[in-house]
Amino acid sequence: MRGLLFLGALLLLLVVLWPMARRVLLPPAGRPRAIRDELVKDPVCQTYVLRSRAVSREAGGTTHYFCSRECAERFSE
User: Fold this and answer.
1) Cα gap 3→15, rounded to integer Å
2) What proportion of the chain, given as a percentage, has pLDDT over 90?
3) pTM of the model
4) Per-residue pLDDT at 9 exceeds 90
5) What gap in Å lies between CA 77 and CA 72, rounded to an integer?
6) Three-state SS for 32?
7) What is residue 27's three-state secondary structure?
8) Which listed site, 7, 13, 67, 69, has its alpha carbon 20 to 30 Å from 22?
């Protein structure tokens, strides 16, 4: 009888602790991984800006990145 009580308690403990253990041990499936951003140099004013925040223009098959629309317009002139 004690063996059944011990087995039942162990099973209950496993059912309660398993979801918490999965959250700790396994990475979250629904969240996207962070993308590392890099600095790019503006060819007009020579400042560095994050690629994700830069204004981009293509010219001659090459993508150029700018800190602002004004610098992008100056480059295209």
Assistant:
1) 18
2) 47
3) 0.53
4) no
5) 9
6) coil
7) coil
8) 7
Provide CB contacts within 8 A for 50, sequence distance 6+: 37, 38, 39, 40
Q: Which two tokens stand for residue 3?
A: 């063996």
As to burial, measured by CB atoms within 10 angstroms (0-12 exposed, 13-18 middle, 19+ buried), residue 32 is exposed
Tokens of 75: 């480059």
Q: In this model, does residue 38 exceed pLDDT 80?
A: yes
**Beta bridge mates, 40:** 49
Rg (CA), the chain: 28
* Burial label, 33 (beta-carbon count in 10 A; 0-12, 13-18, 19+): exposed
Residue 58 burial class via C-beta count within 10 angstroms: exposed 0-12, middle 13-18, buried 19 and up: exposed
